[in-house]
Write a structure and sequence with these properties.
The complex is a heterotrimer of chains A (490), B (256) and C (470).
Chain A lengths: L1 H14 L1 H44 L9 E4 L17 E6 L8 E3 H4 L2 H4 L5 H17 L4 H6 L1 H6 L5 H33 L6 H29 L5 H30 L5 H35 L3 H56 L3 H13 L4 H28 L7 E6 L3 E6 L21 H31 L5
Antiparallel strand pairs in A: 1-2, 2-3, 4-5
Helix pairs in contact in A: 1-8, 2-5, 2-8, 5-8, 5-9, 5-10, 5-13, 8-9, 8-15, 9-10, 9-13, 9-15, 10-12, 11-12, 13-15
Chain B lengths: L11 E9 L5 E10 L4 E6 L5 H8 L7 E6 L2 E2 L4 H5 L2 E4 L11 H11 L7 H10 L4 H4 L8 H15 L3 E5 L7 H16 L3 E6 L2 H7 L2 E6 L2 E7 H5 L3 H9 L13
Parallel strand pairs in B: 3-8, 3-9, 6-7, 7-8
Antiparallel strand pairs in B: 1-2, 1-4, 4-5, 9-10
Helix pairs in contact in B: 3-6, 4-6
Chain C lengths: L1 H14 L1 H41 L13 E4 L4 H5 L8 E6 L8 E3 H4 L1 H6 L4 H17 L4 H6 L1 H6 L5 H33 L6 H31 L3 H30 L5 H24 L9 H49 L3 H12 L5 H25 L37 H31 L5
Antiparallel strand pairs in C: 1-2, 2-3
Helix pairs in contact in C: 1-9, 2-6, 2-9, 6-10, 6-11, 9-10, 9-16, 10-11, 10-14, 10-16, 11-13, 12-13, 14-16
Classes of the chains: A mainly alpha (490), B alpha/beta (256), C mainly alpha (470).
Chain lengths: 490, 256, 470
C-alpha cells in the first residue's frame, strides 16, 4: 500500500508546474555554480603557479643565503570548486624569513575587491539557501493541502494507517526533490572533470561525504515542511511559518551567533599585536647594540697595547672567532624576536579560538550553520584553514632557515656579500665590499608542501556537525509523525 | 464483537452514539439507528445538526465519548482499519487531485481501497456508469465542474465495492438532471445489496429514495420514519416542525 | 473611490496574519542590524585606537628619529561601514610606511578573522536586498489574481469602478500598508545609533537617509514587480513561483555572472606579476649602485665623522635617484593595472545593473563609502600622508628616509640623549569622499531604482486594463 501512496506522490508532484520550474532553476543554478567554481579555481591556480614561479626566479637570482627571504604560497584546493569557504578571504601567501612572524596575507578579495562585491555562488550556498527553500516549497502543504483538497479524508476513509500516510508523504516529496537533483549534479561533476579539474581518490571521498551531508540537510527541511504542514489547518499558514523559519534559520541565525561571540570574547587586532611586537623588537635590538658595544670595547682593550704587526696577527687569528661571536649574537636576537612574536601570536590565536569556539557553539542552533560547518570542513575551506596553513608554514620556516644556515656555513667565511663599514680609532674608516659571487644554488632548498587534510581528518572534524544534522532531521521526522497522528483530518 | 453477516444483520449501526467535545459542546446525543444491506437511510437536518459528525464517527475521524459506531459488526473506534475496509465514502465537496485526470484519480483511490484488479476498461465503464462522457475521462480534475467531480466521487465509491456506503451531502450543488442521475445510481447500488447512509438536507430526494428517514436537530435524532410511515405524512411539514422544535420528539427510538 | 480602495487595502493587509508575522520578523531584523552595526563600530573603534596607541608606544624610548621604522597608519572605521559593509572587511586596513615608495594595505578583517567571512555580517544591504525583497513578494504576489480566485474581483467590478483607479489604489495601498510601517523600526534603529554612542556627522546622516531611501525604493520595486506578476498570471501560486524564480535570478545569478564575464573579458595583470617586475628593477638598480659604492673613495679620510657625513650624503643621492626610478616604474605599472581594473569593474558593474538587487547594493555601498573605490581612496589618502610624514622625518633627521645607513658609532662621547616624542608625528587625518561626490556616484543607481519602479508599475497597469476579471 505504501508503494501506491509514494507512487502517487511522485506522479502528482511531477505533473504540477512547481516541479518543472524548480527543477529547471536547480539545474541552472547547480551547473552555473560549478562552472563559476571551476573558473575561480583555475584563475586561482594560474595566479598561484605564476606567483610560485616568480618567487623561484627571485630566489634563483640571489647571491647570498644571508637574510634570505622567501614566500610560502597557498595552493588552491580542488574542493573549493564545490564549497569555496574562506579560500578567497584568506591570505594567499606568507613571507618566510628569520625575523617576521608567519602570517598569511593578501587574499584574493583584498587584491581584487571586485570579486568581493557580489560574493561567491558555490554549490554549498545553493544547497544551503536555494534548495532548502525549494524543499520547503514542496512540502509546506503536504498535510494541510490534502486536507483542503478533501483528499485526506478520502484517503483515510480507507484501510491506510496514518504512519504509512505520513511516511509516504515524506518519502514522495524527498524523492521528487532529490532524484531530479542528481541529474544536474552528475552533469555538473562531468563538467568539472571536463573543464580540466583533476580529482584524486581523496577528493572523491570528500565529495561523497559532502553530497551526503547536503542531502541530509535537505532531508531536514523536507521533514520540517511535513511537520509544520501537520501543525496547521491552512496551507497559507504553514507557508508563512515555514518562510519565517527559513529566513531565521538560514539567513539570520548564522550571522547573529558570530556577532554575539565577538562581543563576549573580544580579541585584539593584529595591528595592535604588531605594535607590541615592534616595541619588543626595538628593546631587544637596543640590548643587542649594547652587547656589540661591549664586545668591541673588549676587543679594543685587548688590541690596545700591541703594535701594528701584532695587531694584524691577532686579528687574523681571531677573525673566525669574532665572526662566530657576531653571528651568534645576531642569531640570538633573531631567535628572541621570533620567540616573542610567536608568543604574542599564540596568545592572540588562543583568544581568537575562544571567540571562534563560542561563535561556533552559538551558531549550531541553526541547521543551516551546522550544514555550513560540515560542508566547509569536508572541503577543507573552513576558517580552521588559516591555522592549519600558518602552522605548516611555520614548520617550513624552520626547515628553510635551517637549510639556509647550513648553506651559509658551507659557503664559507665570505657569506657577507653586502658591504661593511668599520670605523675605528686606529684604522680610520674602512669600507669593504663583499665579492660579487655567483647566484646561490636553490635546487636543494626544501619546498613548501600544502597541508592537505586527509579524508579521515576532515571527516572527524565534521562528525559533530553531521551528528547534529542527523539529530535535527530525526527530531523533525519524529515530530512530523507525532503531529500527524493527532491531526484532525476533517 | 463480530457477528455473522446475514440478511438481517445491520451493516451500518449507530448504537447510542454520543460525542461531547472538550469544550462541553454536545455534538451528538445518543443517536441510535441501523441500516441493513439493501437499505438506504437518509439523515436529514440543518447545518450543524450533527449529520457530518455522525459520519465522521463511522470513519473514525473522531472518537465517540459514549456508545459505538459499528460497520458490519466491527466497532469503528476499536478496529478502525478493519472497519474502513468495508466502507465506501463520498464526501461533501469532492475536490480530488486537480493535476490528475479523472482516470488517474479513480485508479489511485481504487488501489488505496485495496482493489487492484481493475483494468482500464473497467475504469472507463464505471466513469460512464456515473454519467461522465468519454472525453472527460482523460481531462484533469481542475477543469471539472462540481457535478462532474461529484460523479468521480461516486465512481470511487462504486469501485471500492464495499458493503457500506456513506455519503455526505452528495447532491448539494447538483443541477436537477445530475441529481436525478445520482438517485438512479443509488438505487442500482441498493439493488446490489449495499447498505447506504446518506446525509442531506434535500427533503425531496430523501423522500424519493430512502427506506428510512431520520431527522437530526442539535445532535439528537428527533424522528425516524420508514418509507411506509412516510407515505401517509407530509415530510416537509414534519421537517419544519422538528426544526422549529414543535415536533413530537420520540428520540428516534421507535424501531420499525 | 480611490481613497475607498486604498482604505480597504490598508485594513485588509494590516489585519492579516501575514502582515503581522512578516512585519514582526522584519522589524526585529532591522533593529538587530542597527544594534549589531553600532556594536561592531564601537568594537572597531576601540581596536583602531589600541592599534594606534601600540604604534606610538613602540617608538617611546628611542633617542634618534632615524631609528623610527615601521610607522603604521590605519584606515579609521566609519560608522556607516558597519551598516553597509561593502568591501570594508575585504580590503587591507593597515599600511606600513617607510617614507617613500608605493604603499600597500595589509590585513583585511576577513583575513584576520576568517570565521567572520564564513558567516558574513548582518548589514542593511543584506536585510534590504534579501529579506525585504522576499517579504515584498509575499505581500503582493496575489494582489490581483488572489482577488480573482476569491471571487472578490468580479464582485468589485460589478460596480462602477474604473480599472485605473483600482490599480492605482492597489499600488498605493500596498506601499502605504507595508512601506510606512517599515519606517518605524528604521527610525528607531537610527535613533539607536547615538544612544549607543555612535555619533554621525551631518553629512553621514544625509548619507544614511539616502541609503534608507534606496532601500525603500528597492522594496517598493519588488512590491511593484510582484503586483506585475499577479496581473500577468491568473493563479496566485503561479505568480509566486514566477516571482521566486525572478528573485533568484536577480539576487543571485545576474550579479555574480556579470563579474564572472567581466573577469574573463578583461585581463588584469596580477599583483604578483607587478611585484616581480618591480623587484627586478630594484635588483638591477642595486647592482648598478654597488658599482658606484665600490668606487667611493675613503682616501684622505682621517676624520671619521666627516667621512660618515660624506658617505651619508653620497648614499642619500644614490638612494634618491634609485627611488625616483622605482617610483616612476611603480606608478606606471600601477596606473596601467588600475586602468585595467577599472575597465573590468565598469564592465562587471554595468552588466550587473540588469539586476535591481545589484543596483541597490551599488547605491548603498557608494553612499556608505564602502564600494570598490574604497581601497584606492584609502591608498591615495595614505600616499598623501606619506609625503607629510617624509617631510617631517627629513626635518628631524636631515635626510630622506630609507636613503642612508643607520650608523651605530661605537666609542666616542656619550651625550645625554633625549628620547623622542612620538606625539610629534603628524597625524593621519583620513577624509572620506565628500558628500556631493558620493551622491553623484549613487545618483545613477538611485535613478535606476526609480525607473525600475515605474517600469514595473507601467507593465502591471497596462496589463490590468485588459485583465479578465471573471
Amino acid at each position: 500500500m505504501i508503494g501506491t501512496l509514494i507512487e502517487k506522490e511522485l506522479k502528482y508532484i511531477l505533473m504540477g508546474p512547481k516541479f518543472a520550474v524548480t527543477f529547471l532553476i536547480c539545474a541552472v543554478l547547480i551547473l552555473l555554480s560549478l562552472f563559476i567554481g571551476v573558473q575561480d579555481y583555475k584563475a586561482s591556480m594560474r595566479r598561484y603557479e605564476a606567483a610560485v614561479a616568480l618567487n623561484d626566479q627571485h630566489l634563483a637570482e640571489k647571491t647570498s643565503w644571508n637574510h634570505l627571504s622567501t614566500r610560502a604560497f597557498r595552493r588552491p584546493e580542488a574542493m573549493q570548486v564545490f564549497a569555496v569557504g574562506v579560500a578567497n578571504d584568506l591570505g594567499r601567501f606568507s613571507g618566510v624569513d628569520a625575523r617576521t612572524p608567519v602570517r598569511l596575507d593578501h587574499s584574493v578579495y583584498a587584491d581584487d575587491p571586485l570579486f568581493a562585491v557580489f560574493r561567491f555562488l558555490d554549490l554549498g550556498f545553493i544547497f544551503q539557501v536555494v534548495l532548502s527553500l525549494f524543499a520547503v516549497l514542496f512540502t509546506y502543504n503536504a498535510i494541510n493541502g490534502e486536507r483542503e483538497m478533501g483528499t485526506l479524508k478520502l484517503t483515510l476513509a480507507n484501510d491506510i494507517p496514518r504512519t504509512q500516510f505520513v511516511l509516504a508523504k515524506f518519502a514522495g516529496s524527498w524523492l521528487a526533490l532529490v532524484i531530479p537533483l542528481l541529474i544536474p549534479l552528475l552533469l555538473g561533476l562531468l563538467m568539472v572533470l571536463g573543464l580540466g579539474v583533476s580529482l584524486a581518490g581523496v577528493h572523491w571521498a570528500k565529495l561523497t561525504a559532502f553530497f551526503g551531508v547536503s542531502l541530509l540537510y535537505l532531508t531536514f527541511f523536507v521533514a520540517l515542511g511535513v511537520l509544520v504542514s501537520g501543525l496547521t489547518r491552512h496551507a497559507s499558514a504553514s507557508f508563512l511559518i515555514l518562510l519565517v523559519i527559513w529566513v531565521s534559520t538560514v539567513l539570520v541565525a548564522p550571522r547573529v551567533g558570530m556577532m554575539l561571540a565577538a562581543k563576549i570574547h573580544p580579541a585584539p587586532s593584529v595591528a595592535e599585536v604588531d605594535g607590541q611586537i615592534d616595541a619588543y623588537n626595538k628593546e631587544r635590538w637596543d640590548t643587542y647594540m649594547a652587547e656589540l658595544e661591549t664586545m668591541w670595547q673588549r676587543r679594543s682593550a685587548v688590541l690596545e697595547g700591541l703594535d701594528d704587526e701584532a695587531r694584524q696577527a691577532y686579528r687574523d687569528d681571531h677573525e673566525w672567532e669574532w665572526m662566530e661571536e657576531g653571528d651568534n649574537a645576531r642569531k640570538a636576537v633573531e631567535a628572541d624576536q621570533q620567540a616573542f612574536a610567536q608568543k604574542m601570536q599564540d596568545a592572540l590565536q588562543q583568544q581568537k579560538r575562544r571567540q571562534e569556539g563560542l561563535a561556533l557553539s552559538l551558531s549550531r542552533f541553526s541547521p543551516a550553520s551546522v550544514y555550513l560547518h560540515a560542508a566547509m570542513n569536508l572541503a577543507g575551506t573552513h576558517a580552521g584553514m588559516k591555522h592549519r596553513y600558518e602552522t605548516a608554514i611555520r614548520a617550513y620556516q624552520q626547515a628553510f632557515l635551517a637549510h639556509a644556515d647550513e648553506m651559509k656555513k658551507q659557503s664559507g667565511l665570505n657569506s657577507h656579500n653586502g658591504f661593511s663599514i668599520s670605523v675605528s680609532s686606529d684604522g680610520g674608516v674602512q669600507m669593504s665590499m663583499g665579492e660579487e659571487s655567483q647566484t646561490i644554488d636553490v635546487s636543494t632548498m626544501p619546498r613548501f608542501l600544502d597541508p592537505v587534510p586527509s579524508f579521515s581528518t576532515v571527516f572527524s572534524q565534521s562528525t559533530m556537525d553531521m551528528l547534529l544534522l542527523l539529530a535535527f532531521t530525526a527530531a523533525a521526522l519524529i515530530g512530523a509523525y507525532a503531529v500527524f497522528m493527532r491531526y484532525d483530518v476533517r | 464483537m463480530q457477528m455473522q453477516a446475514n440478511e438481517t444483520t445491520p451493516i451500518i449501526e449507530a448504537d447510542n452514539l454520543t460525542k461531547r467535545y472538550e469544550d462541553g459542546n454536545l455534538a451528538l446525543d445518543h443517536v441510535h439507528f441501523q441500516v441493513k444491506p439493501g437499505e438506504i437511510f437518509a439523515l436529514l437536518g440543518a447545518n450543524g445538526a450533527g449529520k457530518t459528525t455522525t459520519i465522521n464517527l463511522f470513519l473514525n475521524f473522531i472518537e465517540p465519548t459514549d456508545g459505538e459506531a459499528r460497520i458490519d459488526g466491527i466497532a469503528t473506534h476499536r478496529d478502525p482499519l478493519a472497519a474502513k475496509r468495508k466502507i465506501a465514502y463520498v464526501s461533501e465537496n469532492v475536490m480530488l487531485y486537480p493535476h490528475f485526470t479523472a482516470f488517474q484519480n479513480i485508479d489511485y483511490f481504487a488501489r488505496i481501497g485495496g482493489q487492484t484488479h481493475y483494468s482500464d476498461q473497467d475504469y472507463h465503464d464505471v466513469l460512464r456508469r456515473v454519467g461522465l462522457e468519454d472525453e472527460a475521462h482523460g481531462r484533469k480534475l481542475k477543469t471539472f465542474s462540481k457535478g462532474m467531480r461529484q460523479k468521480c466521487g461516486i465512481a470511487i465509491a462504486i469501485l471500492k465495492n464495499a458493503p457500506a456506503i456513506l455519503l455526505d451531502e452528495p447532491t448539494s450543488g447538483l443541477d436537477p438532471k445530475a441529481g436525478h442521475e445520482f438517485i438512479d445510481l443509488l438505487q442500482s447500488l441498493r439493488g446490489e445489496g449495499k447498505a447506504i447512509l446518506l446525509s442531506t438536507h434535500d427533503i425531496f430526494r430523501a423522500k424519493t429514495i430512502a427506506d428510512e428517514v431520520g431527522i437530526m436537530n442539535k445532535g439528537m435524532l428527533v424522528m425516524k420514519r420508514s418509507r411506509a410511515e412516510l407515505a401517509n405524512e407530509n415530510l416537509e411539514k414534519l421537517y419544519i416542525d422538528y426544526m422549529t422544535g414543535n415536533g413530537v420528539h420520540d428520540g428516534g427510538n421507535a424501531h420499525a | 473611490m480611490l481613497k475607498l480602495i486604498i482604505h480597504k487595502e490598508l485594513r485588509e493587509i494590516i489585519a492579516s496574519p501575514k502582515f503581522v508575522a512578516s512585519f514582526a520578523v522584519t522589524a526585529i531584523l532591522i533593529l538587530l542590524t542597527f544594534y549589531v552595526g553600532a556594536q561592531n563600530h564601537r568594537l572597531n573603534v576601540s581596536r583602531y585606537e589600541a592599534a594606534k596607541t601600540a604604534n606610538l608606544r613602540k617608538m617611546e624610548g628611542l633617542t634618534d628619529w632615524m631609528r623610527v621604522n615601521n610607522h603604521r597608519i590605519f584606515l579609521p572605521p566609519q560608522p556607516l561601514e558597519s551598516l553597509v559593509n561593502g568591501v570594508s572587511n575585504d580590503i587591507g586596513r593597515t599600511t606600513t610606511l617607510h617614507g617613500r615608495g608605493e604603499l600597500t594595505a595589509q590585513s583585511s578583517r576577513y583575513n584576520e578573522d576568517p570565521l567572520f567571512a564564513v558567516f558574513r555580517f548582518l548589514d542593511l544591504d543584506f536585510v534590504f536586498q534579501i529579506v525585504l525583497s522576499l517579504f515584498a513578494i509575499l505581500f503582493a504576489f496575489d494582489a490581483i489574481n488572489g482577488e480573482k480566485e476569491r471571487g472578490t474581483l468580479r464582485l468589485t467590478f460589478a460596480n462602477d469602478v474604473p480599472r485605473a483607479t483600482y490599480m492605482l489604489g492597489k499600488w498605493i495601498g500596498a506601499f502605504l500598508s507595508v512601506g510606512v510601517p517599515l519606517l518605524i523600526p528604521i527610525l528607531l534603529g537610527t535613533l539607536m545609533l547615538p544612544l549607543m554612542g555612535v555619533t554621525l556627522s551631518g553629512a553621514e546622516w544625509v548619507r544614511l537617509a539616502l541609503i534608507v531611501l534606496a532601500g525603500l525604493l528597492y522594496f517598493g520595486l519588488f512590491l511593484t514587480l510582484a503586483l506585475c506578476f499577479s496581473v500577468y498570471t491568473h493563479r496566485a501560486s503561479n505568480a509566486f513561483l514566477g516571482l521566486l524564480v525572478t528573485w533568484i535570478l536577480v539576487v543571485m545569478i545576474i550579479p555574480r555572472s556579470a563579474v564572472l564575464l567581466a573577469g574573463h573579458a578583461v585581463d588584469v595583470p596580477t599583483v604578483d606579476a607587478l611585484a616581480f617586475q618591480k623587484a627586478q628593477q630594484r635588483s638591477q638598480l642595486w647592482r648598478e649602485d654597488r658599482e658606484k659604492m665600490r668606487n667611493f673613495s675613503t682616501l684622505g679620510a682621517s676624520d671619521a665623522e666627516k667621512v660618515m657625513q660624506r658617505f651619508n650624503a653620497f648614499m642619500s643621492e644614490l638612494s634618491d635617484a634609485r627611488q625616483e626610478k622605482m617610483d616612476a616604474l611603480a606608478s606606471q605599472l600601477n596606473s596601467q593595472r588600475r586602468l585595467k581594473q577599472n575597465a573590468q569593474a565598469r564592465l562587471a558593474l554595468g552588466l550587473a545593473r540588469l539586476s535591481p538587487s545589484a543596483v541597490f547594493s551599488l547605491a548603498a555601498s557608494r553612499l556608505a563609502d564602502t564600494d570598490l573605490g574604497m581601497k584606492s581612496h584609502y591608498l591615495d589618502e595614505a600616499t598623501g600622508y606619506q609625503s607629510s610624514y617624509a617631510g617631517f622625518m627629513k626635518e628631524k633627521t636631515g635626510m630622506n628616509m630609507g636613503s642612508g645607513m643607520v650608523i651605530f658609532t661605537t666609542g666616542g662621547d656619550e651625550e645625554e640623549e633625549k628620547a623622542i616624542n612620538p606625539g610629534e608625528l603628524p597625524v593621519f587625518d583620513y577624509t572620506p569622499t565628500p558628500l556631493t561626490e558620493a551622491i553623484n556616484g549613487a545618483a545613477l543607481d538611485l535613478g535606476l531604482l526609480v525607473i525600475f519602479n515605474l517600469l514595473f508599475f507601467a507593465g502591471a497597469f497596462v496589463r490590468f486594463m485588459r485583465y479578465d476579471v471573471r
